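Appendix B, Record 12. Input sequence as logged:
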Amino acid sequence: MAKFVPPLNRRDKSANLIQTVAAGSTTEFRRQVIMRNYRSLVSIVLGIALTAIAAATPQNPDVFNHQLMVKFKPGISHTLAHLGIGAEEVSNLAQTGWSVVKIPAATSVSTALTYYRSLSGVSQVNPNYTAYASIVPNDPKYSQQYAPQKVSAPSGWDLTIGSSGVVIAIVDTGLDLLHEEFQGGKVLPGYDYANNDSNPQDDEGHGTHCSGIAAASTNNGIGIAGIGYSCRILPVKVLGANGSGSFANVDKGIMFAADQGANVISMSLGATYPKAFGIPQDLIDAVNYALARGCVVVAAAGNEAVSLDQYLSVPAMVPGVLCVGATDSSDAETVFTNYGSPVKIAAPGLNILSTLPTSQGKYGIESGTSMSTPCVAGAAGLLWSYAPAGTTNTQIVSALTSTSDFVGTWLDGGRLNVYRALNMIGPGVLFTQLADSNVVFTGTLVGGVMDNVKYSDGVTADIRPTFFAGLGYVAAAKVTFTLDHSYDRLKDVTAVITGSALPRASLQVFMRDWSSLSLKYVLMKAVPNSSTATSIDLGRIASKYVSGSNVVEMIVRQLNPTSISISNSATNWQVDQIRLDAKFRV
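Logged structural output:
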């Protein structure tokens, strides 16, 4: 068994271990080294027992201060319900209808849960779990701020440096409000739910470190650069001086941030535990409250080095939350990050230089998925600053995840790329893609020539459909396009078809799947053929529909569902033009 490491030496010990196993070793081997060396380490840093990382087996979630979360049905007396067990309602979440209830010390949590579940006036009840700051101790010698370069932030800043109108809420231990990096209107008035006052001053340090990563004042001649550059910070303190707090306070912090108009909510906190305990419904309600108000919500995957396909990490795994894992300076999976399909994006989280409270030296290096999360939050702030009017929070998240760089199969996504994400979400330039070739795919050409389909000139190609019993009359053209720009710059695609319209007919668009061995055609969308000019919005088509040489092959089919064969030209499809309108980021 490893020798006990005194708490005063815990930072150097972890740093030496990380340095020893970082290079030339597999992820599993590195995890085993951590387990062997930390098996008996019982120091607690920011409320996280390092033995949880060592054993790679998350423990059952801790219940905060012997409290439950109870949701009553309308019109029910809370007081009478609490009297039956001698409990006390200490606060409530008016936005979602949950009550925070402290039960007597002599009453077990399981007994209290059984009691409230037996009441017909209670719709839901679950424990008020404890959330912890998601940080891993680290050797403070590494002073390089490599993360902005690794995620291509400087190239992104060439497109936008963010906007003071975009707000990033850091739901954490608060912020050093007097720090030199957060002056000049950088910080909005926040709140302290740990102490129930309006002064979210950081008395721990974790929240200040995360705030600097997200949006420290940049290009100001001092300190560090924040990913979010000109975006502003809303400090929401939900964790106390010991780096822990209740999920009820996290709920309040999320909803407060949403009510204050935050565009992004960043949570470098949480708990990882067996799936059997489930995700607290009160936390789901709070996140849904924020999502419904347009917030992008990101949270740390956690640092237990376990698969989130087997365990829960909350709030990161609440539906709608972007779960963030950690990479190192070489884009490798860090030894501590949780992994698995729930992890949708990663960002640098090892040896990250950022702000600390002035009393702790102003700047310092920390590691953890805590550091990765505000990096993604800062990027989300940049995207909000650059996005066209009408952009939604789901589109921001999609731009972040779909443009990430592949760094391995340990997550369902990649490492953040700020520049590519901005190009994805930002204003695009429309390019009309004219056909390289046009041929009849189904039916018979009885008038005009197919080359005329390239241009909208009023000269049509007249296609006589083929009759299929049980289906109707089918006429189809196969059209090939070569895109003007590469797929990674593609924003969205619209197919435009001009020609004759039939009252009962439909137009169907198929695209060739270049990833399929059989090169099959896939139905993209079908619409009524009720106009002589039909635009079919296909969105951002998947990469499999664009070949390596930027070729898109499309079949446009007119289907007239007539059950009786007609021997005249009434069903002929007269096609003037088939084109693609593709919007690219330039």
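The CA atoms of residues 301 and 324 lie 5 Å apart.
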